[in-house]
Amino acid sequence: MDCEKIGALIRAARRERGMTQRELGEALHISDRTVSKWECAQGCPDVSLLPALSARLGVDLERMLSGDLEPSREKGDSMKRIRFFVCPHCGNVVTATGEASVSCCGRRLEALTPQRAEGAHRLQAEAVEDEWFLTAEHPMEKGHFLSFVAFVTGERCLLIRTYPEWEMQVRIPRRGHGKLLHYCTEHGLFYQLL
Asked: Residues of the chain whose pLDDT is less than 50?
């Protein structure tokens, strides 16, 4: 651990939260002098305090240990850069339009890499008035189903959850061109242009 980097991170995060050294010390049941020592790189927090310190400052534990609180250099200004993360344990779906560190159920999630949809993984899109009616021949049974469908354009993302043992039928507004993405619980994320 680099005490200088960690101390600078603690100082910056504490100030962002509008906390004094005394308030942080009281929250952690330590003295404000201890917090001052950390911030002046005269020592590092004890390992037993790291989870509480991380939670109190709202900083990811891994980022705290590295002493890196720099914002992402990648701009998240377009929905076209959206990334999908799916928890393999609970099925939670998380999206990010820029670089992100995402975790769920105590595990770090990796961004899914979409592959071109072919065969049973290709959705059929039928224009019905001002909507797209999407269907699939994909199985929809527990353990193997399409868990969500998303339509992404430059300025928006429409995400619709689908469930096992239901027919795969989804309606989305017909608004220009975009990318249709869907997630198979066994084979991953797929895309096709619409």
From this structure: 76
